[in-house]
Amino acid sequence: MPVVLALGLFLLAYVLSGIRQINQWEIGLRFVLGKLSGRLEPGLALILPGIQQLKRIDTRTKNRDLLRQMVITRDNVTTMIDAVVYYRVIDVEKATLAVENYEAAVKDRAKVVLRDVVGETRLDDLLAHREEIAAKVRAQVETVVAQWGLHVELIGLQDVQLPPQMQESLAKVAIAERDRRYVVIKSEADVESAKNFAEAAAILSTSPGAMELRRFEALANLTQGGNTKVIFDLAKPYDAVRHTALAMAEASSNEPARIATPAVGALTASTRVQAAAAEAQAAVDAEAELEAQEVVAQAERSGRR
């Protein structure tokens, strides 16, 4: 009787020791004397210790870092690339039987492909098209790891570090590009401003009233400082002065007389027009100076009184 009880307790302990828990994100593989006998779904599973073995496979997506990969680009620039790979197991039998350590195999394959792809890429393309480079690396890694029952969901380039000299060169290029854009924008603004000034001048030349208002505005701007004395003839409108100057220039240009010079002998018609315009401008300036002197004299007489 004691032997039977002892044997029963031994069998109970043996059975209880073979109870295993499989989590929801895992799939279990049962091996009988080293031979795969089937899958075990999540929950409680019973195996026979010593005869059967249980191997759990995590089917969740895993992320593994590929730190500090030294890569030489196509234009012979040494870079340090930090990348990350996301993968998961889709075929637990292949992942267990086809490769010894599928995690290390995925990381090593990703490193090799990353060096190959970046080595065929120029530095400018690497910096400007990171996502395209990462997608190309993922596609090439996927073709290999798919044979191991794995699926690479994403490979991302976290950081691309350059030598200090190359960083300075890129900074200078960026500054030069900003300066170029500034010059282009400023020149476009100058062209647009010149067009607006031309339109404004055309409008003012055909509207004496608008020109008078502009003259008053200029006078108001001159008197804002308070440290400058300005004598401005408000009695004579600008339109009368302009017409007088134009009439004098036209009369001078129609004269048949020629002005002789020691070097040339006779001035051309265009030179006579320019001389007439200069004389007209001098006459206008002289008239304005006389009027200013008259205003000052009146002011002095008023002060003496």
Tag the structure with descriptive keywords.
three-stranded antiparallel sheet, alpha+beta, 8 strands, 21% strand, Tetrahydropterin Synthase, Chain A, 305 residues, rod-shaped, single chain, 3 domains
CATH class of the largest domain: Alpha Beta
Describe the largest sheet.
3 strands, antiparallel
Please state the second-level CATH architecture of the largest domain: 2-Layer Sandwich
SSE order: HEEEEEEEHHHHEHHHH
State the helix count.
9
Strand fraction = 15-25%
Mean pLDDT: 78
From the spread of the alpha carbons, the general shape counts as rod-shaped
Strand order of the largest sheet: 3-2-5
Number of strands: 8
Flag low-confidence runs: 256-269
Number of folding domains? 3
What's the CATH H-level homologous superfamily of the largest domain? Answer: Band 7 domain
Cα-atom radius of gyration: 47 Å
User: What is the terminal-to-terminal distance?
Assistant: 152 Å
Fraction of residues in H or I helices: 55-70%
Q: What class would the helix/strand composition place it in?
A: alpha+beta
Question: Which fold name is given in CATH as the topology of the largest domain?
Answer: Tetrahydropterin Synthase, Chain A
